[in-house]
Specification:
The protein has 350 residues and is α/β, with parallel strands linked by helices. The protein is built from nine helices and 18 strands. It folds into two domains: 193 residues, Rossmann fold (3-Layer(aba) Sandwich); 135 residues, Rossmann fold, CATH 3.40.50.40. Strands 4-1-5-6-7-8-11-12 form an eight-stranded mixed sheet, with helices on both faces. Strands 14-15-16-17 form a four-stranded parallel sheet, with helices on both faces. Strands 2-3 form a two-stranded antiparallel sheet.
Length: 350
């Protein structure tokens, strides 16, 4: 299919893909503008896609904040409101892509796809993957194939759902995976090939619809470790509005943590996830103290298939938009889980 005359908005946020060598330190720092990034992509002009270019930030992705993403989403909405573009490409560092993409997926309504990309190897390195990733992202955003898919991540020609994608390697060019289900599809020969049904999505109201300020909500994340004596949980107590627990295995903690967790869950939402990042927390298999059956009985909310980082973002959105009710939070987590057979329309968080 020809993409000639299609329109794509490109937002550049920085990251390895936009790096140049710093003259004083000799290290790589984000430096290239969105226009410079696009000029480095061989063959992009030949697609005939009209690019609407935005220099949004020029940061390492570790320094992006949720407030930055709220502002980015507002700009994306402004581009999409009059249906001026067919899709959106967000270009950023890979360190936080799995979180930024999921956060944008929670905010995004409408059918135009948001495609997030980056690079594992910067422009000064042999085998730099930025131009190919950007080219694939523009194709994915410009065409009709991903309408209704929400936010996806395209790297190494693979298309991953925001809900499932993870950075699974610190340096490999094939760092991005969707554990347990694999990528949605592939970009090849100028088009998208889908291997799976487009994912069920959960969309939350955006932050400017009567919501609390994003930065006012504090969602802590605690990873349970062998012999965890609860000291860190005690330190968090009173300093967060909610907690995501990255538990052992399928949702297990040492039994001596249970009274602490129960006391916390009496006051704030505590969501149970697994630190493994692949597979769901169970709900009805083990029943020892500290198991996945015992913890919900003590007030914890099962996090389903969401990894701890994504669970933290969903919980953040729920609290920011005024959803504090335990049953409604539990329902949001139950419906946000991986359910390939469900319909494509996003369900609302509340
Ligand atoms: N540190 C970089 C970042 O901004 C890494 C990358 O882009 O791959 O996330």
């Amino acid at each position: 299919m020809s993409l000639n005359g299609r329109n794509v908005a490109v937002f550049a946020l920085g990251g390895t893909i936009a790096t140049a060598t710093h003259p004083a330190t000799g290290g790589a720092v984000p430096a290239l503008s969105a226009k410079e990034l696009l000029e480095n992509v061989p063959g992009l002009d030949a697609l005939g896609v009209r690019l609407h270019v935005h220099d949004f930030r020029r940061l390492p992705s570790a320094s992006l904040s949720l407030a930055d993403l709220d502002a980015l989403h507002a700009e994306i909405r402004a581009e999409l409101a009059p249906e001026a573009v067919d899709g959106v490409v967000v270009v950023q560092g890979t360190d936080t892509i799995e979180e930024t993409a999921f956060y944008l997926d929670l905010l995004h309504r409408g059918d135009a796809p948001i495609v997030v990309t980056g690079a594992m190897r910067g422009p000064t390195l042999p085998g730099s993957d930025g131009p190919a990733n950007l080219n694939a992202a523009v194709i994915a955003a410009a065409g009709p194939w991903l309408r209704g898919a929400g936010c996806v991540v395209v790297l190494g020609d693979q298309i991953h759902a925001a809900r499932t994608v993870q950075k699974s390697h610190t340096v490999s060019p094939a760092a991005f995976t969707s554990p347990g289900c694999g990528p949605l599809g592939l970009v090849a020969e100028g088009r998208v090939r889908l291997y799976q049904r487009l994912p069920h999505r959960t969309a939350c109201p955006p932050g400017d619809e009567g919501a609390a300020s994003t930065s006012a909500v504090r969602v802590a994340l605690h990873t349970v470790t062998l012999g965890d004596d609860g000291t860190q949980l005690d330190l968090l107590d009173g300093h967060c509005d909610s907690l995501v627990l990255a538990a052992l295995g399928a949702g297990h903690v040492p039994e001596w943590l249970v009274p602490r967790l129960r006391r916390l869950a009496e006051r704030i939402p505590v969501v149970l996830t697994s630190r493994i990042g692949n597979g769901p927390v169970l709900t009805r298999t083990y029943s020892s103290p500290g198991s996945e059956r015992d913890l919900p009985a003590n007030g914890l909310i099962p996090g389903g298939d969401l990894n701890p980082y994504k669970a933290r973002l969903l919980l953040h959105r729920l609290l920011t938009t005024g959803c504090h009710d335990r049953a409604r939070i539990a329902l949001a987590f139950a419906t946000a889980g991986i359910a390939p057979a469900r319909p494509r329309a996003p369900s609302a968080c509340q």
